[in-house]
Design a protein that fits this description.
The protein is mostly beta strands and 116 residues long. The protein has one helix spanning 26-29; strands at 5-7, 10-13, 18-23, 33-39, 46-51, 57-59, 67-72, 77-82, 91-99, 103-106, 110-115. It has one helix and eleven strands; from the N terminus they run E-E-E-H-E-E-E-E-E-E-E-E. The protein is globular and about 40 Å long.
Length: 116
Amino acid sequence: QVQLVESGGGLVQAGGSLRLSCAAPKSIFSVSTMAWYRQAPGKQRERVALITSSSSTTYADSVKGRFTVSRDNAKNTVDLQMNSLKPEDTADYYCYAFSPASGGFWGQGTQVTVSS
């Protein structure tokens, strides 16, 4: 059972910042594409940011210029730096790891609430 462990969620005022972190097992991290998804109440889960094993990144249009995804291959972690947060960023945020050999794995989620 592959376990991804997220941390860093919480409550922040609009305009503020939060940093989420996800730790993955060494056995899959180095070869995995890592991503952050979010799901707001009553909405579908959407991908926010993705970073490949070679550190290429993509972002949802709604977060471009505000969020930055990064990975530390020595620590087996992927972070999501979220700046200029808006109330519409409120959601449960999930870490996701994927590799062709191992398949896909989800973290348990961490809640982010942005107050106006």
